[in-house]
Amino acid sequence: MTAVSPHLSSIHSSAGTRRGQSVAFEGVSKIYDDGTPAVESLDLECPAGQITVFVGPSGCGKTTTLRMINRTVAPSTGTVSLGGRDIHAMDLTELRRGMGYVIQDAGLFPHRTIVENIATVPRLLGTPRREARRQALELMERVGLDQHLAKRYPYQLSGGQRQRVGVARALAGDPPVLLMDEPFSAVDPVVRAELQEELLRLQRDIEKTIVFVTHDIDEAVRLGDQIAVFTTGRLAQVGTPAKILTDPASDFVDEFVGSDAGVKWSSLLPARDIEPFTPPEDLDGWQLVIDDEGRCQGWRPPGAGDHLVDCRRTVRLASDSLRAVFDALLLSPCHLAPVIDDQDRVVGVVDYASALRALDRQREASR
Ligand code: ADP
Ligand code: MG
Description:
Structural class: alpha/beta
Strand content: 15-25%
Bound molecules: adenosine-5'-diphosphate, magnesium ion
Oligomer: single chain
């Protein structure tokens, strides 16, 4: 028998074995029993293994649409399918087992410990206690939770930690589809950004089909492979984040993406093809000061002796976006941004002209 590396065995034993399946809506409408129209003739495909974000103002039908995927809401007309199969022809238990569900307050069982919460679905599926526990501990690690939290109860965790538990619990049955309804809306912006990063990192491994609901366009742009913009029961536009930001289909979408759509778009554009250069000798007297290890110390203003102006921002072209480059340029006292490598050593500078050339190249490439 050949040895399996610990990394591989952990991936195959819990989340990540079952890749996503596509979810599709065809002519789907929902009118609630009291006559409220929530969704009108919706046609939409959420591609397998990708993140589709439903975004739009409150009350426009996002949650209703999401809940028609796991049949907690039944469509009035139309068909919802999973991997090409009509979900209403499927066994309900089988359907639900294939879908993890994460909601805003995480919806954890208050009287169960964290590890018991995460092990809920595997236990229901008949996994022996010890094995379910082992999988739960592994999932805690995957979502960035320290194992010393395993025996705590939900009220003993922070909001951000509870959301991580919610994600781990949703992944525990290894479902191909993950439904997430405003999962990060109640946590503060810093923790929220961490949770978003974590979800993207996780998704690179597990490639689930994720349908993610938010009312926040920034969150949609950060997370979505595809964004579906809703307006009272209808789709206003479906497209990549870049398409939605640069080519809104209507005044509604234009207004919804906000007045800084261009700036948001620049956060999607990589800075990696900008060529850093050596700062010219005569920079109106400004001089970039570097220490013996090659690290940036600051800008020395014209004729200012030993006084240095802080660099504020440096950029790593390999991983930063054009937005980060523009931010660094805007904050620079001399219209140049220092470029550093992954050991924080200065390798050169960039200016507005080089950033704008990169922007033009990417605009050209996307045509
Ligand atoms: P969103 O998630 O975008 O905020 P919802 O899907 O929750 O929107 O709601 C869409 C519309 O359907 C709203 O007008 C809402 O009041 C209505 N609605 C939601 N759930 C029900 C229900 N169970 N019964 C009647 N109307 C509902
Ligand atoms: Mg909702």
